[in-house]
Please model this.
Amino acid sequence: MATPPSQFAALLRRSKFASFDPSIGQVYTTFDGHAARGNFGLKRPLAIRRRNAHITVQAIDSREQQTVWRSAEPENRWIRMFDETGTTPAVSKDGPWAARMGWLGEIQFLVDSDLVPEPESIAAEAKAETEPLSVAAIGKEQQPAPKPLPPRSSATRNWDAMTDGEFDWYLRRIRKLRPAFREYLKEYGPRFESKSDPKPDLNPSLLTQSLYATGDHFKSFLEHRAYLDYHQPRPRHIEQQPHRFAGLSYSRSTPLQTLLNNKPHIGRVVTKEHHGKSAVVATIGMTSTLNIARLTYQPPSVTTYRFNAVTLKAAPATVGIFPQGLEGVKMTSTVRIDSEETRETKENPHPPASKAYIAYHAPSNPQMGMTGTLKKHSMHPNQTTAPKTLLLSIQHLANHHTTPLVTP
Model:
């Protein structure tokens, strides 16, 4: 009878020391009494002994028999600051991260319901049903629509990362799939027509297909085979499904939800560019663009902002010989001013959905009657009480003119 493993062996297998890999960029932290002793689950305690400490480890043992580590506070603080904004980023279609995700990155998330089709598909179906046929198309036989491609997976094998032996094994495996590739081309490949015989050739040779075919059908075939391997009843491989935003944000908040639940963040105007039409704003550890061409006043140097749009172009390569950190992130963002001064210029300056917002009633203009309302005045940010001052002046003049000007 085999003896059960000891408690020390179980703890060792679950420890950070046993799971450490220098090719994977990881951030380590510790809590409670372990933080006071500098115990991060590694081979030896470290010199950093405080709570909420975050580090990255380059080597467990150096030549001097020491653990090589550095502080990861910039990465931790930046992720926390971005999470506090509640912004859902977008992925640039022509960026390196979109190329790494493949066609899986084009899948959109429906906020309201996953069962409702997108507005573009609804409009296209309505147009196809109501659009009349042309005179030339009535007597012509309609060609059948091309058959859509089968389900695919972009998580195919990386040829560049293979050794010579692995690549030779992969070539032998691919050669065995030649009959399946021919069947795939018969069903999903192009149709060839000649001038003498207008009917398409349903069984062309591989030479004909290689000479006249357009497109990368072999790539779609390999992606389809990868999809079948991953979706077997008992698969031996796990499909790689990278996070759409590379782990930057796991919440999908709408702009209204962000406005109601998240506070604006503080930023500072750094420089102006493009002849004063835009400005560079430093906020939450990154620089953003502020459009000042539409502003009727000079923006203050320090105020609070909200993101208009955040676009992710490149994500850090956390797996490799030299794992990257924040230096591998490439993002573009635009902001708008959201401060007390800008809220005063709105028709209802109170926070939406609050009691003051619901009970707010715009003051009426005495010169226009009870139905007219005051128009919004353009104000300097320091003159936030311009409508209130105007009302007080009108009331003061009305009180002084109640007495008769001419005495009998």
